[in-house]
Amino acid sequence: MPTPSSTKTTFMLPEQSTVLEFDAIKLKLASPDDIHEWSHGEVVKPETINYRTQKPEKDGLFCEKIFGPSKDWECYCGKYKRIRYKGVVCDKCGVEVTRAVVRRERMGHIDLAAPVSHIWFLRGIPSKIGLVLDLGVQALEKVIYFASFVITHVDEAARKETIEQIQTELKTKRKQIDNEFNQRAQEINNRKAKSLSQGESANKVEKQIEKELIDLNVAKIDKLQTLEEAAETALKELKELHELQIISETKYQDLSMRYGHVFEASIGAEAVRELLLTAELSQEYVVPAGSAEVEHPEPLQGFDQMSPVELSFISANASPVPQ
């Protein structure tokens, strides 16, 4: 009995008389642009066969305009029949007159109204999207299922400017608090002098004034401490903002109200798409334009640390998303 390695597969194209012989097939990733190039049309309806006419539905999953005629040398509407019209595209139904076997090889495509994430690339082991973005599956699921936001961009210039603004505002408010409490302390001392001039007991006045000054000092310390804590929290939040950070909806609303000019965040598969658009594969391994194959005459430093997804995209000279 012949083994797969000892047999040779033959394949004949429907429009050719020559026979193609091959021993093996190599599979690699196809870019979305390649898929659009191979496609013969967009599928816009989920229907397959019309239950009355038993013919493929137009613009459906079996559409003859996209995939080819269901009968040899006959268009969908029947205007053109037989081989003498070979290659003619019907001006009424838009179906090319050719062999029905082309339906086995022609491809269509679907353009989505909004980005979605395929379960194979999200929950596969290992997660292909997680490998590219260096994120865990649980974190990705929170974003894709609209439970959490992910930061897609941080404006470093705006962050630096905001930090400087907070520090300047902190100094200004410190001075305001100092001036306010110094003025109130001066008013207490003036009241002390007035009380003594009216003949009140010096001991009693001293105790009362001392208590008021102590309470005033405690209030000043508390107010300064509250100010310092608020500034420290704001600076910490600003410094901790980074791309791929997962934040809850409540925190997103809070941060966007105060620092909406500093960062951008998104949710759902659209957010993952934005991150993939900005994801940079290892630059030292990027295939030069026009190169069909990747050649590594010598082992590259760090090549073994690349993820399988990076290797696949680089070897196929493809991008994770359409450009």
From TrEMBL:
Q: Which SUPFAM superfamilies match?
A: beta and beta-prime subunits of DNA dependent RNA-polymerase
* Coiled-coil stretches noted in the UniProt entry, renumbered to this chain: none
Q: Which UniProt keywords apply?
A: DNA-directed RNA polymerase, Nucleotidyltransferase, Transcription, Transferase
Q: What is its EC number?
A: 2.7.7.6
Q: Does the keyword Nucleotidyltransferase apply?
A: yes
Q: Which Pfam families match?
A: RNA_pol_Rpb1_1 (PF04997)
Q: Show the InterPro entries listed in the entry.
A: DNA-dir_RpoC_beta_prime, RNA_pol_Rpb1_1, RNA_pol_Rpb1_clamp_domain
Which molecular-function annotations from GO does this UniProt entry contain? Answer: DNA binding; DNA-directed RNA polymerase activity
Which principal EC class is assigned to this enzyme?
Answer: transferase
- Give the catalysed reaction(s), semicolon-separated: RNA(n) + a ribonucleoside 5'-triphosphate = RNA(n+1) + diphosphate
Annotated GO CC locations = DNA-directed RNA polymerase complex
Q: Which residues form the RNA polymerase Rpb1 domain?
A: 21-251
GO terms classed as biological process: DNA-templated transcription
Query: What protein name applies here?
Result: DNA-directed RNA polymerase
Species name: Candidatus Kaiserbacteria bacterium GW2011_GWB1_52_6
